[in-house]
Every structure is written in structure tokens, then in C-alpha cells.
Amino acid sequence: MKWHKNCILACILLMQGQFFCAQTPYTWQDFVEDMADDQYAEEENWSQHMEELAQLASNPMDINTATREQLQQLPFLNDEQIEEIHTYIFLHGGMRSLGELMAISSIDLRTRRFLSLFVNADVWPYDRKDTLSLKSMLKHSHHELSTRVDIPFYYRLGYSYPPDKGGYKGSTLYHNLRYRLTSTKHLEAGLSAEKDQGEPFRGNKGWDHYGGYLSLHDIGILRTLSFGDFRVGFGEGLVVNSGFSTGKSGMIQPTQGVRAKRGMDEYNYFRGLATTLGGKHFNGSVWLSYRRLDATLRDDGTVSTLLTNGLHRTNSELDRKHNLKSMMAGGNLTWKEHGFHAGLTGYYQRFHRDFSPGEQVYRHYYPSGRDFGVIGANYGYSHVWFKVSGETAYSTEKGGWATLHRASWKISDKYMLTASHRFYSYKYYSFYASALSENSRVQNESGGMLRLDATPRGRLNVVAYIDFFYNPWPRYSMTHSSQGQELMAQAEYQIKRNNTIGVRYQLKRKEESDQMRLHNRLRLQYTHMQGKWWRLQSTLLMHSVDAGGVGWALSQRVRFKKEDGGLSALLTYFNSPNYATRLFQYEPLLTNMFRFPMYYGKGFRLATSAHYTFWKQRLTAEVLYSITRYTDRESQGSGMQLIDSPWKQDLSLQLRFRI
């Protein structure tokens, strides 16, 4: 009798999953638009992390065999959700359809949609043949080769000057080339090359940046073995986290473990060897890295600033290329059992030049010397309704401490309350730390945040938080300690199956240039799905600053998607009186390409893209055309980036070949 009930349940879940997918097709573009948030607009690494997720989405993993480490690459999944997925698969012998995710209480509709892009359940576990032989891995491998070129229809001032006068040495074109191999869940490899606009090709070893990796996974006790470029993250990210970090509104999970670097990022990664060995309750990781970094040097040869943009267009920028050597050795030991977890992470890093922070007050506690070490312990306990976690770290260079703790209480299936506290001493410093913070550095900040996630009704989702932060040492442009508060509330309501309305309001009080500034941001958005293929979205953005005026933008987005191709367009009118009231909005682009254009001044912007897949789904061609017209000025940009015209037009072409 019990067997019959299980069969009936499985059939119901299968039909529900098929009905869900048939009625509401979820695409990669939907995912990017759902994940995109104004708070990431000025975060340099956001697009790089999304690019790596795009690589994962192009080769979905099998949910029935996906390991914890593989699922931890998805920043929207937490440890409890991963544990419940594995428990369900163990108890039921696997999943026949992703519709069975509906039986896991912690996996809500939004998460199920996200997962549909990154996992599949096409093969019944008992029919699967898995072998570790190299011949079998290569036989069942998938290959993808892609290339992109960006063509600007304008000239910046930097191209008008010869290189000896500070002008750009290369052409106006951007170009990249990448290759990726994936084979079941055990083997993956990749190569990439990139040249930014203005960078020379001749005399610069061809493309300006090269990358590559080879990774093995889940072979006996070997969890991961990576050669080449890789990322590392553990705990709350206070010691090291070169991947996604926890955000205020997005609640993205910090990166955990070792994984390959699949994107085009030129700074936030390691190069060398990394491995993770594991058993039932213990995992141990070790990594070794040697890299050359870009840096601005002082007259005495010491390092003033690390450069992260990866641009090498002029003679001076080329002089700063790879002029700093960095060597690092690090490790982690993690224990998990019965809901408890604890870990110890540390690294030692040595540069071949000394860092010199300078005389400015705000740089007084920046790193100095050439030898740096950081060690930290993370810990926590997870229950169905309650979770606590934290990390405490110590840096050797100035003897600073940092700690971050959070507690979550699942009041019911509809309400979750999360409280967090952070203290980052101004003496603490880690080059690769990335964690919950108001500022970009995990340093010189303390604060507390309270967050509520609620689904009071089936079609209504609400997120709200309040955050208090304090900076004891003067920040840039400040002469004394500073403080601030931030309040955010957003709600999304599904009026009908194909109509959704959303509102987001943010109030922030923050001291800038020794004055308290009050920022108000508002976003209203209405989305309509017309059948399976059409999506219309209208958005109103507003940003006001006390004594600074009000900036606003109105946009209309249209998207058409069918099995083999699609079209999308975004038309925006913006009116922002000054830089303080600038606005950001994600716009539809090509696969592996992400951008938040800044709206400042008056004008219009149109971005249109199209893609089509043919030749038995092996070849995809993509094109993007964008045009901006300012109505309040005759030029745009400044310095060598100046464009002597109110018009700005760009064309991007991309080809992706898969076998």
C-alpha cells in the first residue's frame, strides 16, 4: 500500500513539474534579471561571477549525482537546502523529474526556477552508467568554443594621441576567445584569451590576458583537484572569498570550497594548484598560488596601490602590468556532523615588493610590508527552524581582528527572521576577504542588521531589512569617524499567472565628505507575460539626494523567445541632474556579457539583442546593438575616455559552437 502511495505521489509531482515548466518557461535571461540588483551595479566582480554562472548553466549538472561541492557553486542555495536535496534523493532513490523539488519544503518557487537552469534529472539513477576511465570521460565529453568582438562606432580622445603622448596603443576593438570541456561530473577544462579596447595586440604577446584550468572532481576521497586558475572561499568570507559574497538584499551565500575560475576576471582569483580531500565528516583543502599583479609604484619602488581593472592601453598602464609578484600558500579543515559545522582557514602571502600606504589619514591602516598572514575559525549549527553561524579571523600584519555572526529563525513556512552582527577592526586586513559590509573592504566597520523574508500570501513576497553601520577610522574624503543607517523594503505581487508588480524602496543616511547625506531610491516595475514567448516589462527608477535634486528614468523592455532564437530590446529615457543622483539598470546583453549602464544627465538609450541557434542546436549566433543620445551635452566622458559627440553607438557579435 505504501509503495502505491509513493508511486501516486511521484506521478503527481511529475505532472506538476511538467505543468509548471510548460506554462512558465524560465530562461537564463529571466535568471539574470531576477538576480540583478542596483546594489551590485558598482561592484566590480559582479559581472565576472554571473559570467561563471552562465558557464554552469550551459552544462547543467545531474541533480541525482551532484555533490555538495558542486551544488555549493550555486549562490542561491544554502547548506540546509543542499542537505534536504541529498536527503530526499537518498530516501527516494533519486528524482525522475525536477517537479519533485516541490516536495522539499525549503525549496520555494523562486529557487525551483533558478535550479531548472543549472540541474536536470533526465536519467533515472539505476539506468546510469558512471565510469572513471579517461576513455569514457572523453567519450562522453562536451565541448564549447565561443568568440566575441565589440565594435564601437566612435573614437575616444585616447586614440587621437600617439603612445608617447599618453595615447592608446591598440585598436578600438574588444575581443575574447574561450574554450570549455566538460565530461560527466568528473572532468572539466577551459582556456580563454581577452583583449580590451585600446590594448595593443602586437608587442603585447597577442591577447592581453590568458587564462586556463583543468579540474578533476569526486574520484574516491578526492573532492576537487584544480590546476591553473581557481577560486577559493570558506566560512563567512573573512579570511578568503574570491567568489560571490553575502549581500544585504540578495542574501547570496558566500562561496565555499575550491572551484575553477571560468570567467574573464583578471584580478580576483588564484593561479597554481588547489585540492580538496574529504570523507564523511571531514574535508581538507590546500592551495598554492603564484601570480603577477598590476600595481602603482612609488619612486622608491614600493607599492602604493593594487590595480584591479586589467586595462593596459597606454605606456604608463603597460609599465604597471605584472610588476608585482605574489606567492601564497593556504589551507582549510572543515568538520560537519549532525547539523554542527566548524572550520579553520588560513593563508600566508608574500610579495616581492613592500607596500607603502602613504601619508593620507584614511590610508594609515592600509597594508604595509611584504609578508601577510591571516587565520580564522568558522562555526555554526543548523536546524530545520533555526540556524546560527559565524567566523572570527586575525591578521598578523597589524594584529587586527574581524568577526561576523548571524542567526536565522524560521518562524513558519511563510516567515524568516535573520539577525547579523559584524565587527571589522581598522587594523584587520585580508587581500581576498569578501563578506557582508557597507563598504568594499572588510575593514574599519562595525554594524548590525535585521532582515525579514516573508510570503504572507501565495502570490506576495516581501523582503525588508534595516542596517546600522559605523566606521571608527576616517574613510576617504572624511576627517573623522562616520556612521550611517540603511532601510530597504521590497514587495513583489503576482496579480495573475502572467502579471507581476514589484516595488522597492531604499533609504540610506551616510556621511560623505564630512556631511550627512540622505539618499532615497525607488523602483517600480510591472511585468507581463503574453503567452509563452512574449515578455513586457515597464520600470520607473528614482534617486533623490538632499540638496542634490532628483534623478529618474523610465524604461520599457520587450522580449520574444522561442526554441531556436529570440529578440529583446530596452528603451530608456533618463534625467539625472548630477552625479550624486546617478541611476543604474541592468540591460539585456549577450551570453557571458553583463553590464549595468550608469544614467547621468539627460538622454535616451536603446539596447537591442538577438540570438539564433541552428545546425542541430550546435551553433548560436548573437548580436547586440546599443545607442545612447544625450540631450544636455555635446560630449561625454572625460580625460582620454572623452567622446566628442552626444551620440554613442556599439555593436557586439558573438558565436558559440557546441559539440
Protein described:
The chain has 659 residues and is mainly β. The chain folds into four domains: 1-129, no CATH class; 141-216, no CATH class; 220-447, no CATH class; 544-659, no CATH class. It is 12% helix and 48% strand. It contains eight helices and 30 strands. It has helices at residues 2-23, 28-35, 46-57, 68-71, 79-92, 109-118, 134-139, 315-319; strands at 61-62, 119-120, 141-152, 174-183, 187-195, 209-219, 222-233, 257-260, 270-278, 282-297, 303-307, 324-337, 340-355, 369-382, 386-395, 400-410, 415-424, 445-457, 460-471, 482-496, 499-512, 515-530, 534-545, 549-561, 565-576, 583-584, 598-599, 601-614, 619-630, 647-658. The protein has a 24-stranded antiparallel beta barrel. β22 (515-530) and β23 form a beta hairpin. It is globular, with a radius of gyration of 25 Å. Mean pLDDT is 86; it is low at 1-23.
Query: Quick one: overall form?
Result: globular
Q: Please give the count of helices.
A: 8
Structural Rg? 25 Å
Strand content: over 45%
* Main sheet summary: 24 strands, antiparallel, barrel
- How many strand units? 30
Quick description:
With 659 residues, the protein is mainly beta. It contains eight helices and 30 strands.
Name the features.
24-stranded antiparallel beta barrel, disordered N terminus, globular, 4 domains, two-stranded parallel sheet, mainly beta, 659 residues
Topology at a glance:
Elements (H helix, E strand, L loop, with lengths): L1 H22 L4 H8 L10 H12 L3 E2 L5 H4 L7 H14 L16 H10 E2 L13 H6 L1 E12 L21 E10 L3 E9 L13 E11 L2 E12 L23 E4 L9 E9 L3 E16 L5 E5 L7 H5 L4 E14 L2 E16 L13 E14 L3 E10 L4 E11 L4 E10 L20 E13 L2 E12 L10 E15 L2 E14 L2 E16 L3 E12 L3 E13 L3 E12 L6 E2 L13 E2 L1 E14 L4 E12 L16 E12 L1
Parallel strand pairs: 1-2
Antiparallel strand pairs: 3-4, 3-30, 4-5, 5-6, 6-7, 7-8, 7-9, 9-10, 10-11, 10-12, 12-13, 13-14, 14-15, 15-16, 16-17, 17-18, 18-19, 19-20, 20-21, 21-22, 22-23, 23-24, 24-25, 25-28, 26-27, 28-29, 29-30
